[in-house]
Design goal:
Length: about 300
């Protein structure tokens, strides 16, 4: 069972490698949202996404020198590769065959070995399980949640006035982390999760109370998952206030709004929290923390 002690230990580790990311408001964005919106800029991480926090914590706590093996389409791969480089561990990352060239190169440039295999994440996962080394699940690793939780410590320490946190969900580690930290540091603060209605596995798992498999048709990488993950779901069941599903188009609109009004680049998943604030104002309080979880837009997103 993960506790704040694990999070505080992770904080010491993450702080050794990364400065806190900025969090502040933009008056025009507040106006558009009809409330105060505090934007936490995880899109300024060296890997372009918040997942590096979890990977650093995981690598710090993995003994031995066997290679790290994992599977991912993008940001998890890059996070593990970055942390492996920091800790001088070998890393092998299985990416689906059609993974974007730039994403593959970004991982290789950090020194990890990329194996392209299979049509989707299910195939990549199955192949990763056959490779020698310590297999790391992108969702069911408590150390990832504890590492990612450090971002919510930074946010709530700096902005104790927040009454709502909105968190985009793929596997659910980020939302689980937000729930743990909010319950400890700001018990009145609600946590609202958001996923694409084109990939609702985590949402449906939370509503059903057991992990579900669902079709995954979203174009938004960070939110693309075909199943619920048991570890994060257990924490969400205890603490999450609500879970919103949005269309990919609404999330794309929020991405453009962040570029125009906040001068910041988000990938789709990185704009999903803001999209939820705009689409479901009735669920939100008067001071909302929105995490821009990632910057790594696809070529198509950039073109749009
Ligand atoms: C992975 C990711 C998410 C979702 O996080 P989970 O912890 O998998 O739920 C959201 N945004 C971005 C940019 C991501 O890379």
């Amino acid at each position: 069972m993960l506790t704040m002690r694990d999070v505080l230990a992770a904080r010491k580790i993450v702080d050794r490698h990364l400065p806190p990311t900025p969090s502040w408001s933009y008056p025009l964005l507040d106006e558009a949202a009809g409330r105060r919106v505090v934007v936490k800029h995880e899109n300024t991480q060296p890997t372009g996404a918040f997942k590096v926090r979890g990977a650093l914590n995981l690598l710090a706590t993995l003994d031995g020198d066997e290679p790290i093996v994992t599977y991912s389409t993008g940001n998890h791969a890059r996070a593990i590769a970055y942390a492996a480089r920091e800790y001088r561990r070998r890393a092998t990352i299985v990416m689906p065959a059609r993974a974007a060239e730039l994403r593959v190169r970004a991982v290789e440039a950090l020194g990890a070995t990329v194996v392209r295999h299979g049509a989707d994440m299910g195939d990549a996962e199955a192949h990763a399980a056959t490779l020698p080394g310590r297999l790391v699940s992108p969702g069911d690793e408590p150390a990832l949640i504890a590492g990612v939780a450090t971002l919510y410590c930074e946010l709530l320490e700096r902005h104790p006035e927040l009454d709502t946190l909105v968190v985009p969900v793929g596997s659910g580690t980020g939302a689980a982390a937000a729930c743990l930290v909010a319950a400890a540091l700001a018990p009145g603060c609600r946590v609202i999760a958001v996923q694409s209605q084109a990939a609702p596995a985590a949402h449906d798992s939370w509503r059903a109370g057991t992990c579900q498999h669902r079709a995954n048709h979203t174009e938004i990488d960070g939110l693309a998952t075909g199943r619920g993950f048991a570890g994060p779901q257990a924490i969400l069941r205890e603490h999450l206030t609500d879970f919103v599903l949005l269309g990919d188009a609404a999330i794309g609109d929020a991405r453009r709004l962040l570029a125009r009004l906040a001068g910041t680049q988000a990938e789709g998943a990185g704009a999903a929290a803001l999209a939820a604030v705009l689409a479901r104002p009735g669920l939100m309080g008067s001071a909302v923390g929105v995490v821009v979880t990632g910057a790594n837009a696809t070529e198509l997103e950039l073109a749009r």
